[in-house]
Amino acid sequence: MLELVDLTVKTEKEQYKSEIALYKKQLILLEQEIKEKGLPVIILFEGFGASGKGSMISKTISCLDPRSFMVYSTAKATDAEKRMPLMHRFWKIIPEKGRMTILDRSWYQETARAFLEDGISEKEYINRLDGVNLFERQLTDDGYLIIKFFLTIDKHEQKKRFENLMDSKVTEWRVNRLDIKRNKKYDKYYEEYDGMLNYTNTEYAPWNIIPSNDKRTAVLAVYKALCKSIRAALDGSKDISATVKGRAVEMKQFKLLKMPKLNEIDLSPCLTDEEYDKLLEQEQKKLSKLHSNLYARKIPVVIAFEGWDAAGKGGNIRRISAALDPRGYEAVPVAAPDKHELNRHYLWRFWNKLPKTGHIAIFDRTWYGRVMVERLEGFTPESRWSMAYQEMNEFEDELTCSGAVVLKFWLQIDKDEQLNRFNERQNTPEKQWKITDEDWRNREKWDKYEVAVNEMIEKTSTEFAPWHIIPANDKKYARIATLKIINEALEKRMGK
């Protein structure tokens, strides 16, 4: 892609002044439409050192309302950030609908330099680029506009700019030995950057390569691309405006396990009080020791609970947490999304609750609400919830590839047992808070929910994150069965 850019083009001052004034007027009007139509926009600037990224961002935002955007300068990842999935820290800063996130360098800096300077293998490099493509596809599928700029200059121009910066005491700090080294190895960086740009020049997030030897030419090119891309997104059309047409990217295919239907689950298993007390003490002691080992070995664990209303999720979570060091876990209750959560990709709020290494996150309801309540209540159109099976498999794949253990439980009871528990809650003063009108309404849709749950389990029970369907008519049996599965999974992960 880089070789197709003409770096000799120059723009005269008068031409620049007249054209930039028109583009700024367009951008101001487009900014208002972004707010009105709720379009979330991510604009990122990458490029060679001294290509002008910082000054380009300043010129880009000069005509915008400061309340409508946030600018982030991407620094080197901290040790804690490196232990999280690669895209974790970028998921956290995606904008709400109607707002813009502007990045001075982005996930590309992290990926390219890891390969060029930190010595990661080519296989790992490609895996990271695949993760970048996945991230951008998930966002654009959800209506985000991602505008990517790569500012390119030649070796001679880069060297001249470094020298000019070093000649002034005010700016000499901006150039270090690594910058000089990169200039000397310009051809190597050029080749790798070109390969990265081609690999990530997708049909949903194409690159705009900006010739930046001449600064006026660069500014006009950025404004022109911004206006064109935003206009196309607001009009609902795809804008493939990169130097080379964006390539199609195939979705990753996951091997799915064959799972039983809910009505095929034997709900008769039960335990006596004596059996339960003995096994509970035994499994909790085991889990407590395993938690200490998890912390020492920096292994994160995600435990996800779904199930019918009154199936016993809370009771299960209490028996698990009782065995854990309270400093090393978090129970995450998942309710209906609030305003800020609704205005972002539905996975955003779950990316924000991932556990640190060595910690455990226990989710009381999960991201699977996308294909259950959001599907059945009509909160999300079919065009989006039908994509969620793939997206959630990808999400869990990212977690496991980064070292996490992912455990998913569906607590299964029958309709009669649910009715008994509903009535008990209704008639017990200290439990009445647990039963709501919504619970009764959901019960009326049991059959429809069962169809949705069966499809969810069928399409998202992967080898790396399988569903565990727990017979839960007997609460005691369900709690022990869950604890045993958790302990076995953690022992397997740590090789006993």
Write the topology of this structure:
Elements: H1 13-37, E1 41-47, H2 53-61, E2 69-73, H3 79-82, H4 88-91, E3 100-104, H5 107-116, H6 122-141, E4 145-152, H7 155-166, H8 177-184, H9 186-199, E5 207-211, H10 215-234, H11 273-297, E6 301-307, H12 313-321, E7 329-333, H13 339-342, H14 348-351, E8 360-364, H15 373-376, H16 382-385, H17 388-401, E9 405-412, H18 415-427, H19 437-444, H20 446-460, E10 467-471, H21 475-493
Parallel strand pairs: 1-3, 1-4, 2-3, 4-5, 6-8, 6-9, 7-8, 9-10
Describe what this molecule looks like in 3D.
This protein is α/β, with parallel strands linked by helices and 496 residues long. It is built from 21 helices and ten strands. It has helices at 13-37, 53-61, 79-82, 88-91, 107-116, 122-141, 155-166, 177-184, 186-199, 215-234, 273-297, 313-321, 339-342, 348-351, 373-376, 382-385, 388-401, 415-427, 437-444, 446-460, 475-493, and strands at residues 41-47, 69-73, 100-104, 145-152, 207-211, 301-307, 329-333, 360-364, 405-412, 467-471. The protein has a five-stranded parallel beta sheet, with helices on both faces. The mean pLDDT is 94. The chain folds into two domains: 2-234, 3-Layer(aba) Sandwich (Rossmann fold); 262-493, Rossmann fold (3-Layer(aba) Sandwich), CATH 3.40.50.300.
